[in-house]
Design a protein that fits this description.
With 88 residues, the chain is of the alpha+beta class. It contains three helices and three strands; from the N terminus they run αββααβ. The structure holds zinc ion (2 copies). The site of one zinc ion has 8 residues, from helix 2.
């Protein structure tokens, strides 16, 4: 099997090794974007929030900047942050 992580693509012939490798990816990135079709993950939850704001909401990175530009948007980027709790 091949690792599904973007930019990795390592091949494994043993399931146990494959699983350990997948765990490794999760371990270093316990915060994941749950936006449909997106596989972004990070070590910091704030990075995922910024990612959702910029990539999916098409908003400036910070709330302050958004206010400055007078953009009204009530969506909560935190709704799209998935935390893999076992890995914290
Ligand atoms: Zn991998
Ligand atoms: Zn995303």
């Amino acid at each position: 099997m091949v690792c599904p992580e973007p930019g990795c693509g390592k091949y494994f012939d043993q399931m146990s090794r494959y699983k350990r490798h997948i765990n490794y990816h999760y371990k270093i990135k316990p915060y994941r974007c749950r936006y449909p079709g997106c596989s972004y993950a990070s070590t910091e939850s704030c990075n995922v929030v910024s990612h959702v704001r910029i990539r999916h909401f098409r908003l400036p990175k910070s709330k302050e900047k958004q206010r400055e530009l007078e953009i009204v948007d009530d969506r909560d980027p935190k709704q799209y942050v998935e935390t893999v709790r076992e890995l914290l």
